[in-house]
Specification:
Elements: H1 2-48, E1 89-93, H2 100-106, H3 111-117, E2 131-135, E3 139-143, H4 151-158, H5 162-168, E4 182-186, H6 192-199, E5 212-215, E6 218-221, E7 228-231, E8 234-237, E9 243-245, E10 250-258, E11 262-268, E12 273-283, E13 290-291, E14 296-300, E15 310-317, E16 320-322
Antiparallel strand pairs: 1-2, 3-4, 5-8, 6-7, 8-15, 9-14, 10-11, 10-13, 11-12, 12-14, 12-15, 15-16
Helix pairs in contact: 2-3, 4-5
Length: 329
C-alpha cells in the first residue's frame, strides 16, 4: 500500500512539474512576441518621425545676409508683359429710381465711363427705359478733334498708358489719327468742367432770394402776341430791386440797353460759355470788370419788353442758347 501510494504521489508531482514547465515556456513565448512587437512599433516611429519638432523656432543663426548652400533649381520671374484686359459691352435698361452713379457701381466702372460711352448730355434727363452701353472696363470714349493727333498725345493728356490705348483699340501705338476717329481710353476721366456740365453743377442761380419761374426755356405762347414762339432763357420772377449775382466767374463783355431785354449785362466765361441778364432796373457792373459768384451785377426790374419785374437769364454755349436749368445747381 505504501509503495502504491508513493508511486501515485510521484506521478502527481511529476505531472505538476510538466504543467509548470509548459506555463513558463508559454509566458516566455508571449514575452518574446511582445518585445518583438514593441521593437517594430518603435522602429516605425523612428522612421516616420519629423526631422525636428515644429515649435516655430529656427536653427543656428549667422550674422549678415544668408549664402545659398543649395540651389533648388526654381525661381519666380516677374512677367515681362502685363495682359491687357478685354473690352466688350453689355446692355442695361434704365429703371425707375436709377442714377448713373449707382449703375456704375453695380458694374464696377465709373460714372464718367457711362456718361462718355453713351454721350449723356445731362444726367438729370436720363429717361426710364433708355438702354445704356456698359463697357467691361472703366475709361472714357474720346473723339479725335484734329488731324495728326497720336496715341501718345492722347495718353499724355489723360495720363494713361499709350500701350493700353493702342491694344484696346487694335491700332499701332505710332498711328497718326484723323479728326472724327473714336477711341476708348482706359482709366481716363472726364475733365472737371465737362463733369459739371453734365451733372448740372456748372452755374449758380443768379437770384439768391425767393423767386418762381414765370416762363421756362423753349417753345411757349408769347405773352404779347399769343403766337407760339421760342424763348431762349428762363424768366425768374421776383420783387423789383432784388439783387442779381453773376452765375459763374467771368469777365463782363457788354452792358447797355436793348428794346427787348431792357437794361442788360453779358458775361463771358470759360469753355465757350456766356450769360445774359436782362430787364434790370439798375446795372451795377461795368464792361471789362472781372466778376465772381459774390459779385452783384444789377437789380431786378421790368425794362424792355416785359410784363412785370423779373430777370431774364440766358446761357450761351459757343453761341448757341442752352437750357440753364440743366446747368445750374
Amino acid at each position: 500500500m505504501k509503495i502504491e501510494k508513493i508511486k501515485e504521489q510521484i506521478i502527481f508531482y511529476a505531472r505538476r512539474m510538466v504543467k509548470r514547465n509548459n506555463l513558463i515556456k508559454t509566458v516566455e513565448c508571449v514575452s518574446v512576441a511582445m518585445a518583438a512587437c514593441s521593437l517594430v512599433i518603435v522602429s516605425a516611429l523612428i522612421v516616420n518621425a519629423p526631422a525636428q519638432a515644429e515649435n516655430g523656432q529656427g536653427g543656428f543663426e549667422t550674422p549678415g545676409m544668408p549664402v545659398v548652400t543649395k540651389n533648388t533649381g526654381t525661381s519666380l520671374q516677374p512677367s515681362e508683359t502685363s495682359e491687357t484686359p478685354k473690352l466688350y459691352y453689355t446692355s442695361y435698361r434704365v429703371r425707375k429710381g436709377d442714377i448713373i452713379g449707382n449703375i456704375a457701381e453695380q458694374f464696377d466702372i465709373t460714372s464718367d465711363t457711362i456718361i462718355s460711352v453713351n454721350n449723356v448730355r445731362s444726367s438729370r434727363t436720363m429717361q426710364i427705359g433708355t438702354y445704356l452701353r456698359i463697357p467691361s472696363i472703366a475709361g472714357i470714349m474720346y473723339t479725335v478733334r484734329n488731324d495728326g493727333e497720336t496715341i501718345g498725345s492722347i495718353a499724355k493728356k489723360y495720363e494713361v498708358e499709350a500701350s493700353k490705348i493702342a491694344a484696346l483699340n487694335n491700332v499701332e501705338e505710332s498711328a497718326v489719327l484723323k479728326a472724327g476717329n473714336m477711341l476708348f481710353v482706359p482709366d481716363a476721366e472726364l475733365d472737371r468742367i465737362t463733369r459739371q456740365e453734365i451733372n448740372g453743377d456748372l452755374f449758380k442761380k443768379p437770384i439768391h432770394a425767393r423767386w418762381y419761374m414765370s416762363s421756362s426755356f423753349g417753345w411757349r405762347k408769347s405773352p404779347f402776341s399769343g403766337v407760339r414762339s421760342y424763348h431762349g432763357g428762363i424768366d425768374m420772377a421776383c420783387p423789383q430791386g432784388t439783387s442779381i449775382w453773376a452765375a459763374m466767374p467771368g469777365k463782363v463783355t457788354a452792358t447797355g440797353y436793348n428794346n427787348t431785354y431792357g437794361n442788360f449785362v453779358i458775361i463771358e466765361h470759360h469753355s465757350g460759355y456766356k450769360t445774359l441778364y436782362g430787364h434790370m432796373s439798375q446795372i451795377l457792373a461795368v464792361k471789362g470788370q472781372w466778376v465772381d459768384l459774390d459779385t452783384r451785377i444789377g437789380r431786378v426790374g421790368s425794362t424792355g419788353l416785359s410784363t412785370g419785374p423779373h430777370l431774364h437769364f440766358t446761357v450761351f454755349k459757343n453761341g448757341r442758347q442752352v437750357n440753364p436749368a440743366n446747368l445750374w445747381n
